[in-house]
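hey
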């Protein structure tokens, strides 16, 4: 699966998510795009999933009818050390989710 990591997540997180093709917003040159435009660009570019720590995304965007799975990481902070324990659940969620679905992994 092609997975896009949001720009507020540490880039080094990509190296810990195995079995998938991972790109960051920065690698794609999409830094600064607003959520709606970013999600549309991700879909158009063939990404299957979007991983974010943005807790407001669910209230801002309607994902129904899109091909994108959205996973929200709920960690104490966006530091790599706080996110790494969530990686196994993140990978499992990606494998279970259907297009257009949103899921939170982890909690505060």
């Amino acid at each position: 699966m092609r997975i896009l990591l949001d720009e507020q997540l540490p880039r080094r997180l990509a190296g810990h998510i195995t079995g998938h093709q991972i790109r960051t917003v920065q690698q794609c040159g999409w830094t600064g795009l607003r959520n709606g435009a970013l999600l549309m660009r991700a879909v158009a570019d063939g990404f299957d999933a979007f991983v974010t720590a943005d807790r407001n995304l669910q209230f801002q965007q309607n994902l129904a009818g899109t091909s994108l799975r959205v996973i929200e990481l709920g960690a104490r902070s966006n530091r790599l050390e706080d996110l790494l324990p969530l990686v196994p659940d993140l990978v499992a969620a990606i494998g279970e989710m259907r297009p257009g679905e949103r899921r939170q992994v982890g909690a505060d």
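The beta strands are 2-5, 21-24, 49-52, 69-73, 102-105. DSSP finds five helices and five strands in the chain.
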